[in-house]
């Protein structure tokens, strides 16, 4: 079901990217450290965190860590899911989960991250302050965003390329460039109703708007589903690499359009803004040639940085994938790779890396 809460709150992350920055990253729930400093209570996501998606039991490999966690935080563990315990839970999933895990499930009508006041209230009744709460989950724009909105400690449960701090930082910078380009492109239409501008100028603005929506959506979809099975994570790395390759190609087209538009704008003589005065009911034209040239140069600069960041993300992803595939090769898992990776990606990737293709 649509998570309206996350959709509305995501703009907070756009304004302040630090809100989606986790304080700790662990590859799986099994790697969650014992006795986190200053932490007296813990919020736990269900799907793809302590349990497989659509399962109401703790993943068997995590049973030992689950038991030790209940001993560390007796009566101060709370499961907060966007499935169990919400209005979408019509078949008693929350009750089954509580019975199987021995930990309460929060009942909430507003999905994460919007349910944080209810979480703070629940822990407040047990004498736990927000800064003493750790939120463990696998999604940036629900679990980690909610943790930072609460003033709590965010623990990202990832076993994917995005657990690389360099990759994570470059992703945030990339999204920031895309958002800046989006705002600038919209401004180009709203504030520059001008005459004599080249048609490629409008084409470039439209393409930048498309790209600025496309990339964050692609990135978000790549980061979303994260099963704990390490084989599934490897497939996810392949999909991320392919997705970033698409980003590079589309961003290269945006760069070509923007460069072409800049050349045409600089070659244009006079660009006039049509201004209608509703008081005198007259129209006058204002020379905005210098302004629109500066505007286009700034737009080109953002496009250049966007292209470079997409290329950096692709290279980081591909290099990490290459290391994974070479490890598979050393360990003699060729047959598994051939059956589980898309098409002939395994062989093509290794051959290309060796320079034998």
TrEMBL record:
<protein>
    <recommendedName>
        <fullName>HAD-superfamily phosphatase</fullName>
    </recommendedName>
</protein>
<feature type="transmembrane region" description="Helical">
    <location>
        <begin position="198"/>
        <end position="219"/>
    </location>
</feature>
<dbReference type="InterPro" id="IPR023214">
    <property type="entry name" value="HAD_sf"/>
</dbReference>
<dbReference type="InterPro" id="IPR027706">
    <property type="entry name" value="PGP_Pase"/>
</dbReference>
<dbReference type="InterPro" id="IPR036412">
    <property type="entry name" value="HAD-like_sf"/>
</dbReference>
<keyword id="KW-1133">Transmembrane helix</keyword>
<dbReference type="GO" id="GO:0008962">
    <property type="term" value="F:phosphatidylglycerophosphatase activity"/>
</dbReference>
<feature type="transmembrane region" description="Helical">
    <location>
        <begin position="171"/>
        <end position="192"/>
    </location>
</feature>
<dbReference type="Pfam" id="PF09419">
    <property type="entry name" value="PGP_phosphatase"/>
</dbReference>
<feature type="transmembrane region" description="Helical">
    <location>
        <begin position="294"/>
        <end position="316"/>
    </location>
</feature>
<keyword id="KW-0812">Transmembrane</keyword>
<keyword id="KW-0472">Membrane</keyword>
<dbReference type="InterPro" id="IPR010021">
    <property type="entry name" value="PGPP1/Gep4"/>
</dbReference>
């Amino acid at each position: 079901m649509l998570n309206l809460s996350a959709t509305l709150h995501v703009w907070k992350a756009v304004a302040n990217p630090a809100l989606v920055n986790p304080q700790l990253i662990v590859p799986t729930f099994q790697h969650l450290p014992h006795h986190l400093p200053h932490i007296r209570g813990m919020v736990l996501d269900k799907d793809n965190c302590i349990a497989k998606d659509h399962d109401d039991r703790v993943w068997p490999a995590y049973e030992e860590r689950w038991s030790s966690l209940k001993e560390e935080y007796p009566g101060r563990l709370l499961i907060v899911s966007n499935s169990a315990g919400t209005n979408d839970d019509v078949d008693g999933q929350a009750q089954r989960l509580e019975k199987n895990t021995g930990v309460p499930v929060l009942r909430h009508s507003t999905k994460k991250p919007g349910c944080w006041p209810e979480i703070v209230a629940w822990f407040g009744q047990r004498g736990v302050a927000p800064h003493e709460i750790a939120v463990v989950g696998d999604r940036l724009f629900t679990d980690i965003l909610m943790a930072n909105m609460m003033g709590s400690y965010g623990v990202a449960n990832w076993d994917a390329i995005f657990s690389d701090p360099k990759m994570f930082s470059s992703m945030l910078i990339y999204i920031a460039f895309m958002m800046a380009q989006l705002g600038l492109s919209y401004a180009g239409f709203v504030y520059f109703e001008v005459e004599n501008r080249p048609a490629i100028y409008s084409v470039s603005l439209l393409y930048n708007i498309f790209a600025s929506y496309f990339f964050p959506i692609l990135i978000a979809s790549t980061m979303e589903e994260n099963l704990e099975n390490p084989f599934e994570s490897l497939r996810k790395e392949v999909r991320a690499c392919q997705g970033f390759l698409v980003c590079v190609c589309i961003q290269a087209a945006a760069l070509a359009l923007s460069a072409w538009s800049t050349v045409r704008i600089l070659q244009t003589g006079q660009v006039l803004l049509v201004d209608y005065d509703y008081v005198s009911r007259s129209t006058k034209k204002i020379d905005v040639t210098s302004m629109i040239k500066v505007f286009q140069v700034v737009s080109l600069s953002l496009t250049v940085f966007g292209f470079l960041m997409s290329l950096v993300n692709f290279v980081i992803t591909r290099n990490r994938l290459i290391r994974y595939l070479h490890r598979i090769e050393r360990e003699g898992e060729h047959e598994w790779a051939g059956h589980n990776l898309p098409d002939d990606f395994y062989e093509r990737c290794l051959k290309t890396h060796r320079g034998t293709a």
